[in-house]
Automatic annotation (TrEMBL):
Biological role stated in the UniProt entry: Transcriptional repressor of xylose-utilizing enzymes.
Entry protein name: ROK family transcriptional regulator
Gene3D superfamilies cross-referenced by the UniProt entry: 3.30.420.40, Winged helix-like DNA-binding domain superfamily/Winged helix DNA-binding domain
GO biological process: D-xylose metabolic process
Pfam families: HTH_24 (PF13412), ROK (PF00480)
Source organism of this protein record: Candidatus Gallacutalibacter pullicola
Signal peptide positions on this chain: none
Length: 409
């Protein structure tokens, strides 16, 4: 094993990339390529980056000395010497994640490979006001950090996933229809001040998309979309390996595509949106109207499991409607992978198959290889993806500061 020369520099890494020596960007390019491909040999890195083999070798030595990468087996070969493969050193540092939805809040500490080292959850089953909820979330995060056993200087920061819409630039939760007590809360700043760590905020579907991209159903792909089929319907879009936010940081809102101009009024004030027709809330409203009752979405799902004809019809129609939108999405972006999660997809077994069937009927006939997959990370997708917000920041800018800081000396 090679002795690491890394210093104690960890949390709060910040960088202004002006005047950064070119060698730092070379090492960053190699590190990004390894991270994107999982692992690679020096020969493969030269081919993938266009760098000379000697440049790769020299800069890989620096990355090894810093402890940012590690040897990870050898490349299969029938002739000659086997090439050593290199991977990101997951134990170099840790990230923290907080994921909040209407059912629960989860907090976790992870390594750079997305493996959860310690986590805690808090059910959202007690009524509370804004101040009480924020206090509970902060307390959960503090307990998670303290009980994880990881020194605070090893934790690079904390990512936060919360029901949207959000303003990531200002760290502000805007007006989430399913968690109204967090309206216009500057959550990023509150978390930073309470935990003493840099924080990063994104809407829930975006962090889940990152989790599934890096460590779940869409691993190995650069382009994908995650669709959240739950009480509401949302989405997170990834293009070229990064979240695509759009001009207003709202990209991916498949739930607000209009399918029926004369359809029901949506929470967004438009009519006939996918969410207004196919969400868990829409399913529940329709079921209650048909049955003359006041059931919850949990009640409807349980009724469907007992072959209640009305519940089955409402859920089947929801899946088919979402499938129409997914088919249109495939026609628009030709994404290789679309991952579907959330309560409806996870609790109603026929849901995904019906989405696939409906999407297949609507997508162009030449589009045969696009895959519609279930979530692979289930309840941990959000908190793992929140940690990826921190990891992304570190690999984008933090490593440049590390290269310049003299930590390798």
């Amino acid at each position: 094993m090679r002795e690491s020369k890394r210093g104690k520099t960890r949390g709060g890494l910040r960088i202004q990339p002006e005047n950064v020596p070119s060698g730092c960007f070379t090492r960053k390019t190699l590190l990004d390529t390894i991270r994107r491909n999982g692992r690679a040999s020096r020969t493969q890195l030269a081919e993938l980056t266009g760098l000379t083999f000697m440049a790769v070798k020299r800069n890989m030595e620096e990355l090894l000395d810093l402890g940012l990468i590690r040897e990870d087996g050898t490349e299969p070969s029938s002739v000659g010497r086997k090439s050593v493969l290199y991977a990101v050193n997951e134990s170099f540092a840790c990230t923290a994640g907080i994921y909040i939805n209407m059912y629960e809040t989860r907090a976790a500490v992870m390594d750079l490979g997305g493996t959860i080292l310690y986590s805690k959850r808090m059910a959202m089953d007690q009524p509370c006001n804004q101040a009480e909820l924020i206090d509970r979330v902060i307390r959960l995060a503090q307990e998670t950090l303290e009980e994880s056993g990881q020194p605070r200087e090893r934790i690079l920061g904390v990512g936060i996933g919360v029901p949207g819409p959000v303003d990531p630039g200002r760290g502000l939760v805007l007006s989430p229809p399913n968690l109204t007590c967090l309206q216009y809360v500057p959550l990023r700043g509150i978390v930073e001040q309470a935990l003493g760590l840099p924080a990063f905020l994104q809407k829930d579907a975006n962090v889940i998309a990152l989790g599934e991209l890096r460590h779940g159903a869409a691993r190995g792909h650069a382009d994908m979309m995650y669709i959240y089929a739950d009480v509401g319907i949302g989405g997170g879009l990834v293009l070229n390996g990064s979240l695509y936010l759009g001009l207003n940081a709202g990209a991916g809102e498949i739930g607000h595509i209009t399918l029926d101009q004369d359809g029901p009024v949506c929470n967004c004030a438009s009519t006939g949106c996918v969410e207004a027709i196919a969400s868990g809330l829409a399913v529940t409203r329709r079921y209650n109207r048909e049955k003359g009752c006041s059931a919850s979405i949990e009640d409807v799902l349980q009724a469907a499991a007992q072959n209640d004809t009305c519940a089955v019809m409402c859920l089947n129609d929801s899946a088919r409607t979402l499938g129409i939108a997914v088919g249109s999405l495939i026609n628009l972006l030709d994404l290789p992978v679309i991952v579907i999660g959330g309560l409806l997809a996870e609790r109603y077994e026929p849901y995904l198959a019906l989405v696939r069937q409906s999407a297949t009927e609507k997508k162009l006939k030449g589009y045969r290889s696009n895959r519609i997959l279930p979530s692979a990370l289930a309840n941990n997708a959000g908190v793992i993806g929140a940690g990826e917000l921190v990891a992304d920041h570190f690999f984008k800018t933090g490593v440049l500061e590390l290269f310049q800081s003299g930590a390798a000396s």
